[in-house]
Write a structure and sequence with these properties.
single chain; three-stranded antiparallel β-sheet; mainly alpha; 212 residues; three-stranded mixed β-sheet; Arc Repressor Mutant, subunit A
Length: 212
């Protein structure tokens, strides 16, 4: 008998791909139930890119490929250190080879389109400071898994470690999104997760020893 063929999931279905390293951390942690998607606005950057509006509706499909990349450029260059990204860098990534005027016009038009989408999500600020664009949300009203990861990654509190397992169990950073500029972000996050949980294992080896 040949190998069985599995039916691929629908395009809009979230694929949960646990990180193998996490499965070795602790029986208690690996049995953590994944937190249900927030009822309100949320942005998921671990696993599949997903955006929920302020009523909990999935509006990911409203992001065209260009708007998605513009959004991720702005957001990932704004969190967690709020350094931002210049207009020239945005132009270089999204409109290479275009004249300055053409690129500027394209950027302006698409920022307006992006704002129309973000208005559906929740309170946010998109501003230009010292020639750099910054995008950030009211984190009390809009849930962003990557921001939660950064906030909790510095702690050794068991409950917080459990939350980190839950946050990252959706998969790596933007697993189905590929941009050249995104590679370093993915590498840094992957290295950070590995280092974090190895540190946790080393500090608590006696807790994670297999049962006899």
């Amino acid at each position: 008998m040949g190998p069985s063929m599995s039916t691929p999931p629908p395009a809009d279905q979230t694929i949960v791909t646990p990180v193998p390293l996490m499965l070795t951390i602790s029986k208690d942690l690996t049995e953590t139930t994944l937190v249900a998607s927030p009822a309100g606005p949320a942005i998921f950057l671990f696993g599949q890119f997903t955006v929920l509006d302020n009523e909990g509706n999935n509006i990911t499909r409203l992001f065209s490929p260009l708007l998605k990349e513009l959004f991720l450029l702005l957001l990932l260059h704004s969190i967690p250190d709020k350094k931002g990204i210049t207009s020239d860098r945005i132009n270089e990534v999204l409109w290479p080879g275009r004249s300055g005027k053409d690129a500027r016009n394209n950027r302006s038009v698409n920022i307006v389109k992006l704002k129309n989408l973000l208005d559906k999500v929740g309170p946010y600020t998109l501003e230009k400071v010292n020639d750099k664009w910054l995008l950030y949300f009211n984190d009390e009203q809009v849930s962003i898994d990557l921001l939660q990861y950064f906030e909790k990654a510095a702690t050794d509190i068991p409950e917080q470690i459990s939350t980190l397992v839950t946050l990252t169990a959706r998969g790596g950073l933007l697993t189905e999104t590929e941009y050249g500029w995104l590679d370093k972000f993915k590498s840094d996050i992957s290295t950070g997760i590995t280092t974090l949980f190895l540190h946790q294992l080393q500090r608590n080896t006696h807790k994670y020893a297999p049962d006899n």
